[in-house]
Specification:
mainly alpha, 0% strand
Amino acid sequence: MESVAHFMFGIFGNAFALLLFLSPAITFSRIIKNRSTENFSGIPYVMTLLNCLLSAWYGLPFVSPNNLLVSTINGFGTGIEIIYVLIFITLAPKKERFKIIGLLTFVLIVFLLVVVVSLFVLHHYPRKLFCGLLASIFSIIMYSSPLSIMRLVIRTKSVEFMPFFLSLFMFLCAVSFFAFGLLGRDPFVAAPNGVGTALGAMQLILYSVYRENRGTPKTEEEALEMGEANPKPPQEKQSNAS
């Protein structure tokens, strides 16, 4: 029974993680449409890529058994994040482009070093410990990335810059993998997702408190980002006929 629950929470985690990875698609459709990255930052996508790479590597059977579902979704997430990063590099201003290319190079070097060390230097439990600690650290960093936005929400009393679906899917993904880690008795899966569960819950609480102050979306894409399923079109000013 426990193994069935472990598997089911892994499936739920994969589904919610997929939605989490796809949630920035609206933002990137706007970037492609405008041929500009505007004021968006590419750093979160590069750091999420590193998290996906490390988590996918950690979930492989020769690193940690019974965590293949961690590898499957993070492998898929790696592909999605690579697409986001390449789009960002293509359309970003020159200075921002070189910054993201430099960060991407750093991320790939770090991952390559992890692969080399875990394949040729460490074996068995030390390998799992090394890869698990790194994956946990960067998962916590990824989950903590919205903290600055949460501070902004508290300061401005507005959720204008905190997309609802991103917060919701992050919470559901973290809860599912937290349960998956607990049932699988794997602290390297449970611990970071426990942090993600707490931070996701805080975001949803903030959203419920300040949901009436969402600003005025300028486009349908912005309205969808903020969780407005049926955005109202701007009303045209009526001219007074004399």
